[in-house]
Amino acid sequence: MGEQSVEGAVMHIGEVAARTELSLRSLRHWEEVGLLTPSGRTDGGFRLYTESDVDKILVIRRMKPLGFSIEEMKAVMGDLEVLDDASCDPAAGQAARDRLAAVSGEAAERRERLVRQLEMADEFIGLLAARCRT
Q1: Bridge partners (DSSP) listed for residue 11
Q2: What is the mean pLDDT of each run of 10 residues along the chain (134 residues)?
Q3: 8 Å CB contact between 56 and 35
Q4: CB 31 within 8 A of CB 74
Q5: Which of 28, 77, 78, 123 has the most CB atoms within 10 Å of its CB?
Q6: Fold observed for domain 1-66
Q7: What gap in Å lies between CA 9 and CA 65, rounded to an integer?
Q8: CA 68 to CA 83: how far, in whole Å?
């Protein structure tokens, strides 16, 4: 079975799913909506992923619980690619850093909301536990 030219070690979707604790369905969906593109395919059409692809998947996976939309995640991934591009124009790099700093602030706010929700959940569980004991 031949493989398209992909540098470095390559993995099939099943291995990537296991490593990232994501379903095959999620990985395929992210490709369908343009959030992620595997680095290559075998002659038989099977997706091939690199370590760099796995790193991107892990970024997406970390954004998802914070409620970022597909479009917001695409924008972040695009800005990260700009920063990873060694030939990047300095102005484009600065603009990407500025946008990512804003996203970082938004992520911190979303995290705080989740912390408050967890605190309320703990209080509720405690209230129910106290009621069940009486």
Answers
A1: 49
A2: 61 96 96 94 93 95 96 96 90 95 98 97 96 86
A3: no
A4: no
A5: 77
A6: Multidrug-efflux Transporter Regulator; Chain: A; Domain 2 (1.10.1660)
A7: 29
A8: 20
Short-list 33, 63, 70, 39, CA closest to 52: 39
Q: What do you get for the CA distance between the two ends of the chain, in Å?
A: 67
For residue 115, how far is the Cα from the chain centroid? 20
Q: In the numeric block, which tokens belong to residue 31? A: 């490709």
- Supply the pTM of this predicted model: 0.81
Name the residue ranges covered by the structural domains of the chain: 1-66, 69-134
Predicted confidence at residue 88, as pLDDT, reads 84
What is the distance between the alpha carbons of residues 115 and 131, in angstroms, rounded to a whole number? 24
Q: Which residues, 6 or more positions from 5, have their beta carbon under 8 angstroms from its beta carbon?
A: 40
Which backbone phi and psi does 2 adopt, to 5 degrees? -85, 160
The whole-angstrom separation of Cα 20 and Cα 30 is 14
